[in-house]
Amino acid sequence: MTAFIDIHSHHPASNVLSVVNCFPEEVERFIEKNDEQLCSVGLHPWMIDADWEEKLQVVAGIAAHERVVAIGETGLDRVCDTPLELQGMVFRRHVAIAEQVQKPVIIHCVRAFNEIASLHNKLCPKQAWLIHGFRGRVMQARQLIEQGFYLSFGKGIEQLHDTIQAVPLNRIFLETDDGNKPIAEIYRQFALQKNISIEALAEQISVNFDAFRNQSR
């Protein structure tokens, strides 16, 4: 059976292809300590502080590493104390790095989907954008899919039946994020709601992962 892919994880598991979320201050050590483990690197909106420019230099410096497969998580969060204007500036810098190294972006978005969609229209990125931990409604999902976004589901998946039905299989990923639910259980729940086999779901997400990483190559 095709290995499960966990597109956004803080706790990688054995026998799973996990993309481990790394912050700038930990990414170099993570790569040194974890042979062959894939990761993303970025500055979360909640962690934008006085040193954000130095941290972004770290992101830019390691972004081309072969085991860094995505830039992020980065994004916009309206419940964060960081001013939204500053969040937007930092987000755009992440996008610029991603475009330079030709790697996709993993996005944290809370109550700012209109702003993220607007930035996508303005910036016209060649690299793929993925909203992680998506818990939005059907209309929101459809609008993002029409713009070319990928959506990743994890927490609260059991309450998202209508949204899951509306999203085509070639635009989805699954994730554990910082939760305790195993990725195998998330695959099981998603497959049940979508009325397909777990094996077929795993194969489709593997295809999605290749497309996600190679959108403009």
What is the topological layout?
Blueprint lengths: L3 E6 L6 E7 L4 H7 L4 E4 L10 H11 L5 E10 L6 H18 L3 E6 L2 H11 L5 E3 L6 H9 L3 E4 L7 H6 L5 E3 L8 H12 L3 H16 L4
Structure commentary:
The chain is an alpha/beta fold and 217 residues long. It has one domain (4-213): TIM Barrel (Alpha-Beta Barrel). Helix content is 41%, strand content 20%. An 8-stranded parallel β-sheet has the order 1-2-3-4-5-6-7-8, with helices on both faces. Strand 5, helix 4 and strand 6 (129-131) form a beta-alpha-beta unit. The longest helix is centred in the middle third of the chain and has 18 residues, at 84-101. The protein is globular.
Concise summary:
The chain is α/β, with parallel strands linked by helices. It is built from eight helices and eight strands.
CATH topology-level fold name:
TIM Barrel
Helix content: 40-55%
Largest sheet: 8 strands, parallel
Could you say which structural class the secondary elements and strand pairing correspond to? alpha/beta
Element-by-element helix/strand order? EEHEHEHEHEHEHEHH
The rough form would be described as globular
Arrangement of strands in the largest sheet: 1-2-3-4-5-6-7-8
CATH class: Alpha Beta
Number of strands: 8
